[in-house]
Amino acid sequence: MLKDQFSLAHLTALACPPPALTYIAARAGFDFVSIRPICMGLRDEPDYDLAANRQMLRQTKAALWETGLQVLDIELARIVDGMNTKQYEPAFEVGAELGARHVLCSVWTDDAVFANERFIELCELARMYQLTIELEFVPVASVATLKQAVSMLHIAAQENAGLMIDAHHFHRSKENVSDLKGIPAEWFHMFHLCDAVKEIPRTKEKMIKIMREERLYIGEGGIPIKEILQEIPKVPYSLEIPHLQRSERLGFEEYVKRCLQSAKEYISLNLDDVNIY
């Protein structure tokens, strides 16, 4: 059976710049880091534009070299109305320079034709840097369901395109685990592992708050994680578990250690005897 591998997703400790995130991840026992060099422009969100901040880029390289960690993915290449695919090229170049494997992508335009065209362009651009584009469906975005994401991937038909499932989004979109059957195994390159309360919020605002500030340790909530993971190939698990109060109380280093501990314990208890290929 393949070894479980874990990445520390940047949203779990977004206040930590990439070099600090890398050192924290290494001390906690992670195999990878997943960093966010593409700023989304949200209020109070730090900007880690490594293409513009060459000093931080050098520091990130040094941290990766010293710790031996690798970069699993960079984020987030959003497809929005009026966007130009080339705007992401500096971040793709940085990702390749750091040895990243994947780029996360989500869709925030209701113009399906435009979205499909830009997605194909992103894949073509990423191919120049030996990167894949991982399409993530998000319940508050335009591509909000598994069905929509699968359809988009079939239309694009790009060899370096993948499907990135986030456990939180899967549950909030009210997906059925059985719908994972038949999805091409080669589409899976990584998985966002987290937990959350079982009850799905009734408002978009509350859903976003939980998504960004109140996710739970693995096994603590009500998401059918075991059932989901039984239906997909074993891939690296990126732990995206932001919890504002816990990380402030414990400090990021202790908090991410507990995130990783919960994931390892859950998988050991629930999945070690399952033949995940």
From TrEMBL:
The keyword rRNA-binding does not apply. Residues 24-242 form the Xylose isomerase-like TIM barrel domain. One of its GO terms (molecular function) is isomerase activity. PROSITE patterns: PROKAR_LIPOPROTEIN (PS51257). Coiled coil: none annotated. InterPro entries: IolE/XylAMocC-like, Xyl_isomerase-like_sf, Xyl_isomerase-like_TIM-brl. Pfam families: AP_endonuc_2. It comes from the Bacteria. Keywords: Isomerase. Gene3D superfamilies: Divalent-metal-dependent TIM barrel enzymes. This is Sugar phosphate isomerase/epimerase. It comes from Terribacillus halophilus.
